[in-house]
């Protein structure tokens, strides 16, 4: 037996289905759900990065100011002042950037102009503006060699300029496809230690 549906009935049914919007919202929401979630997660991750960056920079500024005075006091233990600075920095930053790993570089300079520059030429015999064997220079780290980076490792002494550079690998707040599990934040600051004593004058070396 063959069932035949009148054409007018079929047309009315199709028109009715075309006008029926029940369940359309669910289908539309399913289409935008994934992009929306990715945007929300990405926004939260960016906000967390900014917050962790701010916390790290603030902690570094506070710790650096404390270490600039004579006989600074830290609650952290350490075999040296540099070790105590690192411990205090991690303790303060870890409140926000939990389970982070840190790389801390501390160098001291004679003055601010030395940060990122070579040791200072005292005598430039051929006046070419750069060091040549036989020229004289201020040996800031007292290693007997002209260094392209003038700083010496550590906090240094009274009236020295200390440059702190910190990088921290921080786990992401939420896992995001296609991105690494950690993100890198950095902080740096430079300040002069209080002149509680006369600044040491570096020796002049001619080699």
Automatic annotation (TrEMBL):
Look up keyword Transmembrane helix and say if it applies: yes
Q: Where are the transmembrane segments?
A: 24-44
Q: Does the keyword Transmembrane helix apply?
A: yes
Keywords attached to this entry: Membrane, Transmembrane, Transmembrane helix
Q: What is the protein name given in its UniProt record? A: TadE-like domain-containing protein
Pfam families, per the entry? TadE
Q: Where is the TadE-like domain?
A: 23-65
